[in-house]
Amino acid sequence: MTSEGIMPKLRSAPQEAHRKAVESSIADVVGYLQEVLGQKLVAHIAGVADPRTAARWAAGERAPRAEHEQRLRCAYQTFQLLLAEESPHTVRAWFLGLNPQLDDQSPAQSIRAGDFRDVLVAAKAFLAGG
């Protein structure tokens, strides 16, 4: 019997964050993000004007459009990635702060603009000490 049959595969933090972002329902993703980032910031990241829209998504009353869901899942994946080594307070501050790797734009604004890959690269660099 191989060691794979005895022990589950160990995943890296980026793989685990990706898995959580893919497997979680959008209602759970939005609900979690509202808890850790706040409803207004979640609405901003998603690209909607009314924060109550995010509350409806979290309650499962409505589903976000595809472009909103992409932004939300990217934010969730990034949050989970950073949470592997940082406190929720630090991760929230990271989302709001101007980031030199994102041309001095906040990660929240970069996700809203659709720069998903750049945000994940910046998050990995932050974890690496950059």
Write a short abstract of this structure.
The chain is mostly helical and 130 residues long.
Layout of strands and helices, then pairs:
Blueprint: H1 3-6, H2 13-23, H3 26-37, H4 39-46, H5 51-59, H6 66-83, H7 88-96, H8 107-112, H9 116-127
Helix pairs in contact: 2-6, 3-4, 3-5, 3-6, 4-5, 6-9
Walk me through what this model shows.
The protein is mainly alpha-helical and 130 residues long. Helices cover 68% and strands 0% of the residues. It has helices at residues 3-6, 13-23, 26-37, 39-46, 51-59, 66-83, 88-96, 107-112, 116-127. It is globular, with a radius of gyration of 15 Å.
Strand segment count: 0
Output mean pLDDT.
92
Tell me the fraction of residues in β-strands, as a range: under 5%
Basic shape: globular
Question: Which runs of at least 5 residues are low in confidence (pLDDT < 50)?
Answer: 1-8
Helices and strands, in order, run as HHHHHHHHH
Measure the end-to-end span: 42 Å
Q: Please give the radius of gyration in angstroms.
A: 15 Å
**SS summary, helix count:** 9
**Structural classification:** mainly alpha
Percent of residues in helices comes to 55-70%
Outline the biggest β-sheet: none
